[in-house]
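Fig. S4 source data, part A: sequence.
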Amino acid sequence: MSEFEKLVSEQMKIMDQLLELQSELDRCRQVEAELISLERDAKLDNVQDEIATKRKDLAGIQELFQRQTEQVIQSYRSTEKPSSYVQK
């Protein structure tokens, strides 16, 4: 085998290694992208859960506020003077 053939043979082996490594790198990048996407999905799920909790809390507070408002109105009505009473 000539020197040239040896060099070409070695270069072909290196080229195969490069192609294999490039393929592995591409696969790893794809896995990385999928994991990043899954992490975002997990964060999105967490945010959506938090939103649902806040909406539930808000509904409870709105209901409490409505009841308190009704109590204030009833209390005011029970203490106000009759409307037929007009001071002259």
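Fig. S4 source data, part B ends here. The chain has one helix and no strands.
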